[in-house]
Design goal:
alpha/beta; seven-stranded mixed β-sheet; 6 helices; globular
Amino acid sequence: MADPYWNTNVARHREILRAVPEDCGDALDVGCGDGLLVGKLAGAAKRVTGVDADPAMAALARGRAAGLDGVTVVEGDFLAVELPAERYDFICSVTAIHHMDFEAALRRMRELLRPGGRLVVVGLARDATVADWARLIAGAPVVRIVKLVRRARGPVGMPVAAAGMSYGEVRVAAGRVLPGFRYRRHILRRYTLTWEKAGEA
């Protein structure tokens, strides 16, 4: 089934779904928004939990998840809601972490991840260096064309916030919390952090 809309966040969904471990039991989507990715994760994991702090988005996510087995949507602050420690085989977050305390959010994801589990964070950062700005300018025509061709849009009412951290600051901070993480920067003004929690000895 085709996505009901496309934007630079939805563009990362395929990458995220490819990262879901085989035989995934529990998956968690942090900052799930209207639940578009939650619905897709339901086809790759036995149980899926979506968390979002915005009441309107959480309501949309519940509506989208209606009829899907094993899907739960929790409304609340990810840093405060009750979730079981070391429960999840897969945790993802798409362009939501800049709405939170970055390191605190990563630490909570790390704590909730089961040993051997995988974390994928897609984020938004600000351009701060000459290299950042050069990359932005060089990629701008491609970004405009892709958005035009794909008719980029998102759900009405989705909360937005400017990125406070630069790409460099993101990498330094992630290294403090997720040793050995992998980093990739995308032309569509996003980055991806991938990390696997060490398994039990």
